[in-house]
Amino acid sequence: MALANLAELAESAAARLGERVCYEIGSEQFSYVQLLERGQRLQAAFAELGLKPGSKAVVLMMNHALVYPVFQGIFRCGATAVPVMPQAAAAELRYVLADTQAQMVMTDLDRLPIVREAVAGLTHVTHILVQGGRDDPQAIPQEYSLDALLEFAPRTSLPRIADKDIAVMLYSSGTTGRPKGVLLSHGNLLASAEAVVEAAELDRWPGPRITISAMPIAHIFGVAIMHDLLMTPDYLADCTRLIQLRWFEPEQFMSLIDKNRCTATAAVPTILAVLLHHPKAKEYDLTSLVEIVCGGAPLPVELAQAFMRHYPTRIREVYGLTEGTGLGTANRRSEPYRPGSAGRAYCNTELQILDEMDRPLAAGDRGEICLRGPIVMQGYHNRPEDTAQVLRDGWLHTGDVGYLDDDGYLFVVDRKKDMIIRGGENIYPAELEAVLHEHPSVAEAAVVGVPDDVYGENVVAFVVSKPGAPVSEQEVVEHVCRHVAKFKAPSQVHFLPALPKSSIGKILRRVLRDKAQENVAAK
């Protein structure tokens, strides 16, 4: 029987895979049955506190042993989980709470002050559940120890939860305006997990599948990993395990790969750059890695090839976005490596490149990447106009620019909103960043546009040089001009010790744009 919701997915995994250890974080290990039982206990506790179908619960937690059960407890109540990055400021959290009218907040003790500040005066928030906290039913909202709620007797019955019901609401940062709540249903997340397993070609997997992840579970990448684990096929049951880090710390990450002989990981390009250039990388053996699934941002070809020259692993680049439940396209290990390609569409997803009039383009022509299938979101929360603009004729218009080759492999060019228009010419930052990464002294690079009275926009590059390999602005510009048309070359190059990044390692282009404009104004 087909699964209807994520609660049934966890029950199915526990029934199939039982007491096998599948999840490790810090010094704690859990089996499929233990994860399910914890979710059942939290379901009973959350329901007692008033969480019901249609309710919203914000989860503001670092990766922790309780996070999976917290999500499962919310799902089992028929409610919607609203993950928020634990680094969020009080004002950001307050915006999400007000927009969702959330009833509960699940958090950590060290984030409790931020939560208290954010909920002040929001009468719809009735409870704050604190990992590491203590009960204070006199507080407004009431506060309870999240750990103590595990003492509730497990509840095994479920309310009616349809595949179209919203399981997760993730806020997309966007490039302008307020973040929008992306509505992902149980069906969306089940389809995502099925597609990921197919693309991973687990029937061809060589030996143990020990995955290490530092992805925050507040991000679609982390949410996907959580459910992919529950899709483990029976023939890999005895050799599959997920090792979860609370956050990405390079030496700890490398040490755990070495110690546990990890064979797989998920990463954003920045993580690969950090590992490749880390001064202590030679102290750890990472040769056990069979594959690295890399997404979240375009992966420069030079970075990918340099990493694979250094480590005997396969980087399997993928493309996706929150509105597509994190999916879009993927490379497969059984297929030849195509430098710069994010692979073909997932098994349950259609892919087209459309022009400004929503007409399909031929292979090789650049246009907007559009997706269709069960992975496509239900819409934006309380944003009918934005939803209608993005979901047209059944297709999700991603806002990303790319092209397909003759075999249907996708090459992502850039975000439409990141594109720089200089003197009427389109310039794609990702193209220039790929060129910059080819310079032997460049460890990381990012390109943004700034307003210009003459050309409309000008190109500004930010560069992090490799240790002991200084490089000048003139050298950088000359390098770019040797590879692309001169009008694309940066008008300014700024050197930084590190690029500003989000909690999952994505480059914060808005911060760089502000910095670039400040430098222009100062001149």
Provide a descriptive summary of the structure in words.
- It is a single chain.
- Helix 9 crosses helix 10.
- The chain is about 30% helix and about 25% strand.
- The chain folds into three domains: about 160 residues, Rossmann fold; about 230 residues, ANL, N-terminal domain (Rossmann fold, 3-Layer(aba) Sandwich); about 100 residues, GMP Synthetase, Chain A, domain 3 (2-Layer Sandwich).
- The strands form six sheets. It has a nine-stranded mixed beta sheet, sandwiched between helices. Strands 4-3-5-6-7 form a five-stranded parallel beta sheet, with helices on both faces.
- The termini are far apart.
- It is globular and about 70 Å long.
- Strand 23 and strand 24 form a beta hairpin.
- It contains 14 helices and 27 strands.
- The protein is of the alpha/beta class.
- The longest helix is centred in the N-terminal third of the chain and has 17 residues.
What's the alpha carbon Rg, rounded to whole Å?
23 Å
Strand content: 25-35%
Q: What is the H level of CATH, i.e. the homologous superfamily of the largest domain?
A: ANL, N-terminal domain
Structural class: alpha/beta
User: In angstroms, what separates the terminal alpha carbons?
Assistant: 67 Å
- Helices, by number, come to 14
Largest sheet: 9 strands, mixed
* Poorly predicted ranges: none
Helical fraction equals 25-40%
List the strand order in the largest sheet.
2-1-11-10-12-13-14-15-16
The CATH topology of the largest domain is what? Rossmann fold
Mean pLDDT: 92
CATH class type of the largest domain: Alpha Beta
